[in-house]
Amino acid sequence: MPKDTSIRSVLIIGSGPIIIGQACEFDYSGSQAALSLKEEGITVSIINSNPATIMTDKVIGDHVYLRPLTVDSIEVILQEHIDSADLPRIDAVLPTMGGQTALNLCKEAEERGVWEKYGVKVVGVDVAAIEKTENREAFRQLMVDIGVGVAQSKIANSFLEGKEAAQEIGYPLVIRPSYTLGGSGGGFVHKKEEFDAALKRGLEASPTHEVLVEKAVLGWKEYELELLRDSNDNVIIICSIENFDPMGIHTGDSITVAPAMTLSDRCYQDMRNQAIKMMRAIGNFAGGCNVQFSVNPANDEIIAIEINPRVSRSSALASKATGYPIAKIAAKLAIGYNLDEIENQITKTTSAYFEPTLDYVIVKVPRWNFDKFKGANKELGLQMKSVGEVMAIGRTFIEALQKACQSLEINRAGLGADGRQVRNIEEIMDGLEHASWNRLFLIKDAMAMGVPLESIRKVTKIDKWFLNQIQELVLLETELKRYSLNNIPQDFFVTLKQKGFSDVQIAWLLGNVTEDEVYDRRKALGINRVYKMVDTCAAEFPAKTPYYYSTFEEENESKPSDRKKVIVLGSGPNRIGQGIEFDYSCVHGLLAAKESGFEAIMVNCNPETVSTDFNMADKLYFEPVFWEHVREIIDLEKPEGVIVQLGGQTALKMAEKLTEKGIKIIGTSFENMDIAEDRGRFSDLLKELNIPYPKYGVAENAEEAIVVANEVGYPVLVRPSYVLGGQGMSIVINDEDLEKAVVKLLGDLPGNRVLIDHFLDRAEEAESDSISDGEDVHIVGMMEHIEPAGIHSGDSFAVLPTFSLSETVTKAMEEYSIKIAKALDVRGLLNIQFAIKDEKVYVIEANPRASRTVPFIAKAYDVPYINIAAKIMLGVAKLKDFTIVRKLEGYAIKEPVFSYEKFPEVTKELGPEMKSTGEAIRFIKDLEDPYFRKLYKDKSMYLSK
Asked: What angle do CA 703, 708, 713 make, to 5 degrees?
């Protein structure tokens, strides 16, 4: 069936601020869907309160509404589109791209009769399907009716029903609340004594106060299938995904592998048939769907865990894994097309009605931030706790696994072999039994210490095939230690590289050898990284998409063009302190480079984001943002230069090495960026410019720190150099606390210097963002924090423009911003943090790069600031070439969002280390707004050290 011509204008519901369990994978899906509908000539309106994402940018939607995600906001938009002659009436709503938030909102609007009242059609999902899949009892009954296996379970709406269910089913149990995301409120109950507390938590977490009490199938294997279905009832399976971790750990916290590695063909066919049956049973709709299964390793018995009638975290991964753009195709199916009527986006010659075939392996590893939640329970379970993830592509599982470890940015050079292994056997065995963020590394450490593979399997329940693969690394390391760098046989060297060993790991295993020496030796032996194309069809048809991963083979499929090109380094996995706002900046960097006539090349490893969409850059390298990988891409492509300013601290960390190797950094030079990062040199510069700053000192051990602190005066702010998101920062008020803080910091970050600043207690905090082209400086915006100094800027409610600072203060902030930009010869962006006390303005720090606030200001003022900054960095434009007109009536408030409900044992305290996972934007007309007045009244409540 061709597209439904009655649909001319569609509203897409976004997922709101980033929280644990619902991250930027939905902004990727929403962005892709919007562009897909625009291709069809449909007007796209987007409602989403998240200012940090590219989804709420003018380059994605025709009409973007940065409003709270409520039914009232939706009504206002629908009415506006009826009342205004300039806006088309909205014909349909697509709620499947915005995670659980969008589905719940769609359902609530349906219940309140909103869609019917405004004549809006719900597309992409059946509202009844949401009910069937989210209501645990309805789902269980449906599975029984269609003959799909489920775990023994009972529904409970009260304590009495819950206890009766537990008595009937027996322990261990799992509690799953209805209508929640990311496992909120769910958990395992191993014994009777734990049941009451777990039941209470589940009943409270569910908006309908309903839980499913289910038999726990601990140790069974877990799989996911990604499906697409059209209105003709054609269904295809895009991807099978196997969890490396067995049942018991939320899929968002599991290491996952695609395609499934240890599934028998018979079991896979059975699973496919059941998934298709399930999708057809939940409603008559066209779109994407995610189905989760569990398999008993003893006899291949399959049970269904759940089905989500929307795109999911896994569908973003499956899209990047296969190159098949699920959200893009799902959006076209939602408006009436059938699969065989849509062009295959990769080959451009076949239809979308085909199932991708992979001739490589994908590994996803989550990224956690437990260090931000003091006292958090770090054990993994049904409650999702990771804040981001990385994806790696290799020819084999083990190559992809090592590349994923290099992508995580936790200072690992791969899976072990880097001097950071654990050698305490009790700690290792405890970590194997109680899975946490480092269990993968502990498995390797256990093997290196001689723990038998069968003992590891018994305690972890991880499939033996995966453990054998890791064991092979241990054997290869033992063999490598027999050689010196100059006598490693070439074929053995090739094997090491094919198994994912980085040059750093090889250098560490050999001892007394540097990474550069290993690199030079490898090159001398002719062992070069080659690049293979992600083509979705195992090279059966020629692909038109320039999307690559690296491996060690003969043929290189990435042919560099002779165009002038730039490489944009991405920001790697999402984490607290470095989130989606940097991906927003990277996307704008790519677009600006393309508009300026450059070939734009992206290097990144985050599967959730828009920058790794295969049609954003001219060429995408889905690779770790890890020195060895970046270096070889540069060797191959020979770009004019590399943009490091847009990818947060991840990209900035590369600046020194790039400069050492004579590779041009586009924008501000490394030397000038380093002055801003190095506290001593930066303070000398401020002194020279006659700009006030808090008294400070630098220490390399606890004794020196105490001397410095007594000189500058307590309270003091203690922090390491070269970090992002306030990592490791704390406020201390006496010698004893200082000693503890310094010892811990140097333990976590050996070799770092500790900065000790006098903390300006009860000072106001503000920040400025600006763009400099070497001649002129334009102030992008100045924001005033509602909370006092001492709470990290990312955790503060901040107001644009400033609301209570005197003209003297704002003039000083502007003057200092211009002076610093010129002194550092900034080309591009600069963010400066200020503290104001008794009308005196102090500069706390300066960051010559994209900041968390630039996307916010760009949305609030409706000015494409990153695009402007990127063109200035590239040297193709000056500030005077742009006419900048700000459009903001009243004020915009940046609202941080926290994910404390995932860590019920952690108290909500805020300090200099950032803890928020995302943010929303809220517009107010004036300062009499009751919302603002309440914020201002509570401003110091959570300040802690």
From this structure: 130
